[in-house]
């Protein structure tokens, strides 16, 4: 089964599209439906199809006009007319528009299968310009690597555990540095911002610490000062008396 084969079914009756889908999808084909001619032409502008089935009677653009428009742009594409009003005149018009066959309703699974087989055979017998070939999904290419790619991947495999180990070893030191460094940094900023008040505080602390020692020195020194003053007074009195005599 070939899932890349696509059929476009153009009919304003959704039951017809479901009938084609039920029969052809079971054979591995993709079926897309359109409710009228303009919608069918828009879909054909977006993607390629292998066979088109179109009803002959539809509102606006009928199946003969759809077939003629398709053949004008894609002459290699098989178009099959589906009609519930088969008349010699309609069949002649269908042939003149380029349709390869006319199917008469009601349709049976056997009719759909046989018409699809004939249409695909007709499609395969016609050469299609390369620029309008149906899009076929390219087979995935094997993953080829150069020597540089191999070396790079090996280097990444070797380096990854070492980088992880280095991260684990450095992380505790980084955490300790952050815990110690951040408080010190903020403390230095506070000291710098309050430098004037810190000088005053240090001066007061120094005076507070020196005051007891200064008082103690004063107490010890006071008797000697008094003795010195008395001695000096006595010496002056003796000198004065000596001058009078």
Structural overview:
This protein has helices at 14-25, 37-46, 63-73, 88-97, 109-124, 147-193, 195-244, and strands at 6-10, 30-34, 51-55, 79-83, 101-104. With 245 residues, it is of the alpha/beta class. The protein has two domains: 6-132, Rossmann fold; 147-244, no CATH class. It has a five-stranded parallel sheet with strand order 2-1-3-4-5, with helices on both faces. Strand 1, helix 1 and strand 2 form a beta-alpha-beta unit. The relative contact order is 0.07. The model is unreliable at 133-143 (pLDDT under 50).
Question: Which features would summarize this protein structure in a list?
Answer:
2 domains; 5 strands; alpha/beta; 245 residues; five-stranded parallel beta sheet; Rossmann fold; rod-shaped
What does the secondary structure layout of this molecule look like, with pairings?
Layout: E1 6-10, H1 14-25, E2 30-34, H2 37-46, E3 51-55, H3 63-73, E4 79-83, H4 88-97, E5 101-104, H5 109-124, H6 147-193, H7 195-244
Helix pairs in contact: 1-5, 2-3, 3-4
Tally of individual domains: 2
The CATH architecture designation of the largest domain is 3-Layer(aba) Sandwich
Read across the widest sheet, the strand sequence of neighbours is 2-1-3-4-5
N-to-C series of helices and strands:
EHEHEHEHEHHH
- Give the tally of β-strands: 5
The gyration radius over C-alpha positions equals: 55 Å
CATH class of the largest domain: Alpha Beta
Helix content: 55-70%
- Secondary-structure-derived class: alpha/beta
**CATH level-4 homologous superfamily of the largest domain:** Response regulator
Given as residue ranges, the uncertain stretches (5+ residues, pLDDT < 50) are 133-143
| CATH fold group of the largest domain | Rossmann fold
Q: Mind summarizing the main beta sheet?
A: 5 strands, parallel
Shape, please?
Answer: rod-shaped
If you average the pLDDT, what whole number results?
79
How many alpha or pi helices? Answer: 7
Kindly report how far apart the N and C termini lie. Answer: 159 Å
Strand fraction equals 5-15%
């Amino acid at each position: 089964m070939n899932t890349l084969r696509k059929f476009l079914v153009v009919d304003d009756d959704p039951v017809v599209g479901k009938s084609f889908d039920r029969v052809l999808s079971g054979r591995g084909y993709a079926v897309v439906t359109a409710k009228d001619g303009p919608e069918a032409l828009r879909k054909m502008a977006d993607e390629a199809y292998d066979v088109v089935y179109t009803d002959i009677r539809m509102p606006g653009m009928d199946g003969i006009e759809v077939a003629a428009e398709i053949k004008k742009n894609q002459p290699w594409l098989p178009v099959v007319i589906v009609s519930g009003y088969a008349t010699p005149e309609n069949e002649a018009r269908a042939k003149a528009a380029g349709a390869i066959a006319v199917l008469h309703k009601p349709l049976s699974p056997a009719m759909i299968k046989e018409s699809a087989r004939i249409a695909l055979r007709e499609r395969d017998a016609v050469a299609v310009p390369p620029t309008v070939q149906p899009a076929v999904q390219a087979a995935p290419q094997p993953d080829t690597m150069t020597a540089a790619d191999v070396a790079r991947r090996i280097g990444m495999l070797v380096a990854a555990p070492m980088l992880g180990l280095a991260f684990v070893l450095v992380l505790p030191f980084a955490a300790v540095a952050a815990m110690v460094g951040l408080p010190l940094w903020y403390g230095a900023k506070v000291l710098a911002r309050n430098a004037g008040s810190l000088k005053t505080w240090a001066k007061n602390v120094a005076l507070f610490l020196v005051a007891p020692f200064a008082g103690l020195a004063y107490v010890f020194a006071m008797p000697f000062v008094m003795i010195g003053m008395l001695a000096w007074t006595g010496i002056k009195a003796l000198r004065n008396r000596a001058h009078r005599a």
